Amino acid sequence: MASLALSSILAALILYPLFLVIYRLYFHPLSNFPGPKLGRYHSETRLELMLTPKLTIAAATKWINPDELHVDDPEWYEVLYANNPTRRDKWPPAAKMAGTGEAGFGTVDHTLHGKRRAALSPLFSSRAIASADGIMQEKVQILSDTFQRKCVAKEVVELRGVFVAFTTDTIYQYAMGESMGLQRDEEGARRWWATLETTSKMTPLVKQFPSMLALGKALPIKVIRWLKPEMAGLLEIHEQTYARAKTYLLHEEKGHIESASGMEQGKNLLFRTIRDSSLQADEKNIHRLAQEGFTVIVAGGETTARTLELGVFYILTNPSVLQRMQEEAIDAMPDVSRAPSIKELEKRHYLASQPSIIVLVGLKWPLMAHEELRYKDWIIPPKTPVGMTPHDVLLDPKVFPAPEAFEPDRWIHSPDLDRYFVPFGKGTRMCQGMRFALAEMNLALVILFRRFDMELYETTKERDVDYVGDGFLGAHHPDSVGVRIKVNGARQ
Fold first, then answer.
1. Are strands 385-387 and 69-71 parallel, antiparallel or unpaired?
2. pLDDT exceeds 60 at position 12
3. pTM score, whole prediction
4. From CA 357, how far away is CA 151, in angstroms rounded?
5. Residue 422 to residues 224, 249, 339, 346, 390: CA-CA distances in angstroms?
6. From CA 306, how far away is CA 113, in angstroms rounded?
7. Residue 351 has what pLDDT?
C-alpha cells in the first residue's frame, strides 16, 4: 500500500508539470500571443533572476510569463494607463512586492485605490507644495554647505549618499515634521543608500516570493542585521513609522491633534491629511497610516536622489547644456546668497526641464482591465495583467530622435511630446509626488550650478550611469561606485 501511494505521488509530480506545459503552450487563453517558450510554462522567476534582464522579442505584444502580457508601443501607453472612468486593477504580485498592501501603492482594486489616492491629494497639491518652500530651502542650504565644505577640504563628493540624504530628509521633514538627520550623518546616508539599493535589487525576487517580506518582518531586527545588514534599515523604518502612527492615534484619542487645514508645517502632516479626509474610519487605522507613511518616505527619497545624480552627470558631460544652465541660473539667482522660491523657478522653462528629462529605468506596473482590450489585431481577455515599461517609451527612436542624447530643448520646443512624458507614469496610477519631486530637484540643481564649479571625478557612463539589470529601479554595474565629482570653487 505504501509503495502504491509513493508511486502515485511520483506519477503526479511528473505528470502535473507535463500537463501544465501542454496546457500553457496550446490551450491557455494567451497561447496565441508571441513570447519566449520558457515564459509560457515557467514563472517569471527564472526570466527575472537567472536570465539577462533585457528580453527582446520581435513583436510589440509579448507573452512574458504564464500570466502577463507586455506591450511595447508608445502610442498605446495612455490606453493601458488611462484616466478615469476606465477601471484598471493592479496585478496582485506587483502590488504586494513592497509589503504595503494597505497603502495606495499596494492597492489592487481600482475603486479603493482611487479613494486612498484622493485622501492624500491635499498633501501634494500646488498650494501644499508652495507651502513646503521653506523646508526645501532649508535642506538645499544644508546640501550647498556640504558642497562648500568638500570644496574647502578638497574632498570628492559621492553624489549618491549626498543626494539621498537631501531627498529623504526633505520628504521626511515635510510628511512627518522632523528630519531623519541623514544630511548631518555621512556614514548614515551611505548605509541608507545601501539599504535602498539592496531593496531595489531584491524586488524581482520578492515579487515572486512575497512571503519573504512577512518572514522578514517577523524576525527580530538583530537576526536581520546578522543575515542581511542592509535590509535591517528598511525594517527599522517600517517599525519607526508604525510606532509613529501608533503614537499619533493615541494623541488623537486624547484630543491633542491639530487639524491639517491650512497645511501648516507641524508634526505628522501626512497622518493628519488622511485623518481629515473623507475616508471611512476603518481606512484610518494604524496599519494604513504606517504603510502610507513608509511608502512616501522611501519612494520620495531614492527615485529623486537617483535623478539628481544622473542630472549632474549629464549636465557636466554636455558643455553647451552646462553653459546655458549656468547662465539661466545666474538670471534666476542674481544674488548668489539669495535662493529663488520654487514658484519663481516654475516660470523658467529651461531650468524646469532639466530634471524632467532624466530617464529612470524601473519595473513595469502591470494593470488589469475589466473589459477586453484591443491592441491592433490582438484581443486581450479581461483581467489579463498587461504591463508597459517607461524606459521603452522614453527611449523609442520613433518618438525621440537620438533618444540617448541629453537635449532639454526638445521638451520646450515640442510640447506634443508631453504625452510621452512617462517617468512618473500616467492615468489613475500616476505618481502623486511628481510636482513635489520636480520642485525639489529643480531648486537643488539651480542652486548647485549657480554656486559651484564642478567636474566629474573618476566616473564612467558604462559603469556608474548605464543600467545593466532590473530592480525596483534599474541596477548599475556591480563595480559602480556612483557618480562622483570635485568641487573646484565657488561661483560669484
1. parallel
2. yes
3. 0.87
4. 28
5. 36, 37, 30, 20, 6
6. 27
7. 60
Provide the pLDDT confidence category of residue 144 given band limits of 50, 70 and 90.
very high
Q: Is 421 exposed, middle or buried (0-12, 13-18, 19+ CB in 10 A)?
A: middle
C-alpha 86/C-alpha 343 separation (Å) is: 33
Residue 150 makes CB contacts below 8 A (sequence gap 6+) with 156, 157, 487
Instruction: Report DSSP letters for 84-146, one per residue.
Output: TTS-EEEPHHHHHTTS-TTSGGG--SHHHHHHHHHHHGGGGSHHHHHHTHHHHHHHHHHHHHH
Supply the pLDDT for residue 56.
Answer: 36
d(Cα 308, Cα 246) in Å, to the nearest integer?
Answer: 34
**Do residues 68 and 387 lie in contact, with contact meaning Cβ atoms separated by under 8 Å?**
yes
Cα 140 from chain centroid?
21
Whether the ω angle into residue 382 lies within 30 degrees of 0, i.e. cis, is no
Helix 286-316 to helix 159-176 angle, to the nearest 10 degrees?
A: 140
How large is the greatest C-alpha to C-alpha distance in the chain, in angstroms? 90
pLDDT tier at 137, thresholds 50, 70, 90 = very high
The upper half-sphere exposure of residue 248, i.e. CA atoms within 13 Å in the direction of its Cβ, equals: 28
pLDDT at residue 263 greater than cutoff 90: no
What's 414-467 look like in SS3? CHHHHHHCCCCCCHHHCCCCHHHHHHHHHHHHHHHHHHEEEEECCCCHHHHCCC
Residue 315's pLDDT band, with cuts at 50, 70 and 90, is very high
pLDDT of residue 357: 53
Q: Which residue has the cell 519663481?
A: 344
Measured over the CA atoms of residue 17, residue 20, residue 26 and residue 31, the dihedral's sign is negative
